[in-house]
């Protein structure tokens, strides 16, 4: 009866695939891990360790672990839900997940969803345990850190720039909008999809309790959002209210939310001054390092060809890189831009173009699109300048990359 009850619990809470996980793990390994969890007070591995003990049918062990977890994190509603289920499982009377809880059914379902997402948190590893990387992180350029949100999986990843290559530093459980993601209108309670930047920090003491220990606003709507006529504002990465450790997966009004402990941890790496990039993704394609480098070289070669065509003073190949329809997102227009290029080129005997790439990211939510930011150093026979530039590129139906926006 107990085994049947545990199998039911695993299927309902974690999904059918969770019932085969950690059976080969040794007692010594488990003891070492438990000691490490209690030593560093880490919320995430403690919850997962409780679930693993339940999975193995070791309810006495699970009870010890969950009690230790609740002592360290007394606001953990997931911990209390797991403890109630463990007690009921030990008595063989577990009628359903959270059946003994006085919480509303919607709250219980949210907590179950949270447990499922926490359990599925290792998608950045392949079957051999090697690290995989989001395909959006083509080139981190000069940025020291970038954060990537996997919104369907409720996960926020922090990457460090290691000589231009991403290196995973941390990952966190995350809450998104109560209506999901794909924001298009003010008040739709969705979290946006796109590439953004941290542009401010607000201390917790300056905010209502709802926002926890602080907030990092991002620049939604960005230029591409405005082109698509998306509305709304006030999209922040922020913490949780003082009476809650972590919120249910979909429970914000469009922001993306961490526990206060996690917010304080990630906050040491984020910078409004450096405009830390934030990539909010509706899906993530995971690549190994070789695949990511191959993708990077392919897109950098697109930029290199554009640079060479500009320096050639041959206007035909240069303008072929630009999308005529809605060029610059409708600002100014293609024909006006082309006429100006012809006039400028008539006075040139040479052009030298230097590109110092700040970042290059594949754009989430769009097929075959990327955004690149760079410092442009321009030199010709009669003019010299330096300027910060942004380009949006998208692959056309004929397979050629075209510039949608440059400014």
Estimated helix fraction:
25-40%
Mean of all residue-level pLDDT scores: 83
As for the number of domains, it is 3
Distance between the termini: 67 Å
CATH-derived architecture of the largest domain:
Beta Barrel
Biggest sheet: strands, sense, closure? 5 strands, mixed
Structural class: alpha+beta
User: Reading side by side through the largest sheet, how are the strands ordered?
Assistant: 4-3-2-12-6
Question: Which CATH class of the largest domain?
Answer: Mainly Beta
Written as H for each helix and E for each strand, in order along the chain, the element string is HHHHHHEEEEEEEEHEEEHEEHHHEEEE
Proportion of β residues?
15-25%
Shape, per Cα inertia axes: elongated
Topology (SSEs and partners):
Elements: H1 2-14, H2 27-40, H3 43-55, H4 59-72, H5 77-91, H6 105-119, E1 133-134, E2 145-150, E3 155-162, E4 165-173, E5 176-177, E6 194-197, E7 202-203, E8 214-217, H7 223-227, E9 236-238, E10 250-252, E11 256-257, H8 260-267, E12 277-281, E13 286-287, H9 289-311, H10 315-319, H11 334-345, E14 351-362, E15 369-380, E16 384-395, E17 401-406
Parallel strand pairs: 2-12, 5-10, 9-11
Antiparallel strand pairs: 1-13, 2-3, 3-4, 6-12, 7-8, 8-9, 14-15, 15-16, 16-17
Helix pairs in contact: 2-3, 3-4, 3-5, 4-5
